[in-house]
Write a structure and sequence with these properties.
Oligomer: single chain
Largest sheet: 6 strands, antiparallel
Order of helices and strands: EEEEEEHH
Radius of gyration: 14 Å
Distance between the termini: 20 Å
Helix content: 10-25%
């Protein structure tokens, strides 16, 4: 999924699920791991929803709203507010691995 320089996958480790986003930086693969936590929002807000937590403790909430996916990461917030561009890497990665669809229930 993604461009040839970007791959996304879900792995299980020590009883936890992780989203791994592999991107290319300076010609070399760079992996970012996010622990996946299923969120259970009110269906009127959006569905499904995930919390992605990095090893350093930073976390981002991604939710599929009726208008499309949203994320509270700085990239998504900035791009939406100032440029009205598409989804961030978190939304795209969850969509690519099939976890951000109306049919997915964690």
């Amino acid at each position: 999924a993604g461009t040839p320089a970007e791959r996304n996958l879900v792995i299980e480790k020590d009883g936890q699920r992780y989203l791994v986003i592999v991107r290319e930086r300076k010609g070399k693969p760079y992996e970012t791991f996010y622990r996946l936590t299923w969120l259970d929002p009110e269906p009127s807000i959006g569905y499904p929803a995930w919390r992605l937590t990095k090893a350093d403790g930073r976390s981002y909430d991604v939710i599929l709203r009726p208008t499309g996916p949203t994320c509270d990461c700085p990239d998504f917030v900035y791009c939406r507010e100032y440029h009205n561009t598409g989804a961030c890497k978190h939304c795209k990665a969850l969509q690519a691995v099939g976890l951000l669809t109306k049919e997915n229930h964690g």
